[in-house]
Write a structure and sequence with these properties.
Blueprint lengths: L1 H23 L3 H12 L19 H11 L13 H13 L12
Length: 107
């Protein structure tokens, strides 16, 4: 009986910690939508910002970009995004980076 209680508590702790981690991250599907709607206008071949897709960087490079750079060359481009929107775009780019399990362009 005591072992059962310990197992239940452990399962609840594991569930709670994964729920917290999931809420801190971004939504990759929403990020893809935001990227296609807002970022691709400047980030296609021949455009002002140059071609940029998830395949342009590794996961670590995308994290570094969002941690350190966050579009410093043109901050007005990201000023309309909420912090959650930026997390969503970051999650999409990270999930489909060149070294990810599911690399892809943005189509």
């Amino acid at each position: 009986m005591k072992l059962m209680k310990v197992l239940i508590v452990l399962m609840l702790v594991m569930f709670a910690s994964t729920a917290v981690l999931a809420s801190e991250g971004g939504n990759s599907r929403k990020g893809k939508y935001l990227f296609k709607k807002n970022c691709k206008t400047c980030h296609v071949a021949g455009a002002e910002g140059g071609e940029l897709t998830p395949l342009s960087k590794t996961q670590k490079q995308w994290d570094r970009f969002f941690d350190e750079d966050k579009h410093q060359k043109s901050p007005e481009a990201v000023s309309k995004f909420s912090e959650q929107d930026l997390k969503d775009v970051q999650q999409f780019l990270y999930d489909h980076a060149v070294d990810s399990d599911q690399p892809e362009t943005c189509g």
